[in-house]
Write a structure and sequence with these properties.
The protein is α/β, with parallel strands linked by helices and 329 residues long. 42% of the residues lie in helices and 18% in strands. Nicotinamide-adenine-dinucleotide binds next to helix 1, strand 2, helix 4 and strand 5.
């Protein structure tokens, strides 16, 4: 069977494509390259350049490549931008998904995996977030991911698709330096960016009700996340018409201060973090229960936070050689 990966030239999508190919799956990628990089993809993968909401193109790709499963990662993903441009986010992440699902149903595709996010939960006041924790997103990005899940499940139920929604927690690291995240929107590249410019990392708030007062998050290595997609994709084949919604995290909390310390050790940049005021919308603690994925598919993340930081640093230095020069000076 052939898998179509939308957004497969992106940071996570390219890791998923590689994991699928390494496991012997046939893969075709559809990506508009708005943030994607073609060179991230293995040579054996066909890259179709275009939009994942272009119905005519989708019809050609789905039938032309005999696609029987879709992994949908293409999306807009910046929380701040979603607050400024909610209409763009709803159009891309929700209306675009509806077009894709129409094409999927028309082409008789059997399996559909959707990239969701811990942002669907908002700021829950719980120690561990299970899939039963109420979803109360606090920004348009999270809303579009939740609405996307509703669309996927409803289409699955009505049309006999097997569906899965993967709620990613904080993704970091890289399988190889050239696959690293080139954006500066997540905490690890944000700290690297400050250190490279000779500035101290920033911590937003150290008076939260957590052991060291800084926010606690659940970080997952992107290689683990990619392997989770493979496990879910294979699991879906055995559940005709079934649906699975799962957290993808390690089930382990790491505070911003702890993470910053690991970054200091790995990079050799020892600048003490500066504490700034809290940012609106930051939950004190967001840690996944990883139990469902473990129980349903016998899958658990294996890689440590240190491995995430080390691999992310190699990728960062590939794109910012000055970071290493400053580290040595
Ligand atoms: N990075 C994270 O920490 C994180 C956390 C939770 C969820 N997610 C979700 O994972 C998915 C992938 O995120 P990423 O970090 O790899 O982002 P990314 O920006 O690196 O990848 C997105 C890819 O989709 C492509 N794309 C965007 N809109 C498209 C469209 N309309 N048609 C075709 N291609 C399009 C881009 O060119 C890019 O290659 C997104 O759905 C995102 O919401 C990411």
């Amino acid at each position: 069977m052939t898998w179509l990966i939308t957004g497969g030239a992106g940071y996570i999508g390219a890791h998923v494509a590689r994991a699928m190919v390494a496991a012997g799956e046939e893969v075709v990628v559809l990506d508009d390259r708005s943030t994607g990089v073609a060179a991230r993809l293995p040579e054996s993968v066909t890259l179709v350049e275009g939009s994942a909401s272009d119905r005519a193109l989708l019809d050609r790709v789905l039938t032309g490549h005999g696609v029987s499963g879709v992994i949908h990662l293409a999306a807009k993903k910046q929380v701040g931008e979603s607050v400024e441009k909610p209409l763009l986010y709803y159009r891309e992440n929700v209306a675009g998904l509806a077009v894709l699902l129409e094409a999927v149903v028309a082409a008789g595709v059997r399996d559909f995996l959707f990239s969701s996010s811990a942002a669907v939960y908002g700021v829950p006041d719980v120690d561990v977030i299970t899939e039963e924790t109420p979803c109360l997103p606090i920004n348009p990005y999270g809303e579009t991911k939740l609405a996307g899940e509703w669309l996927v499940r409803a289409a699955g139920k009505a049309h006999g698709l097997s569906t899965a929604c993967l709620r990613y927690f904080n993704v970091a690291g890289a399988a190889a330096p050239e696959l690293s995240d080139t954006g500066v929107f997540n905490i690890v590249p944000m700290v690297f960016d400050r250190l490279t410019r000779g500035e101290a990392p920033r911590i937003f708030g150290d008076d939260y009700p957590t052991p060291d007062g800084t926010c606690v998050r659940d970080y997952i290595h992107v290689t683990d996340l990619a392997e989770a997609h493979l496990a879910v994709a294979r699991g879906l084949r055995e559940r005709a018409g079934g649906d699975l919604t799962v957290n993808v995290g390690r089930g382990e909390g790491v505070s911003v201060r702890e993470l910053t310390a690991v970054i200091g050790e790995v990079t050799g940049h020892r600048a003490d973090p500066v504490v700034e005021p809290r940012r609106p919308g930051d939950a004190p603690r967001a840690v996944a229960s990883a139990a469902r994925l473990s129980k349903e598919l016998d899958w658990t993340a294996r890689r440590s936070v240190r491995e995430m930081v080390e691999s992310a640093w190699e990728g960062w230095c590939l794109h910012h050689p000055e970071a290493r020069a400053r580290q040595r000076s």
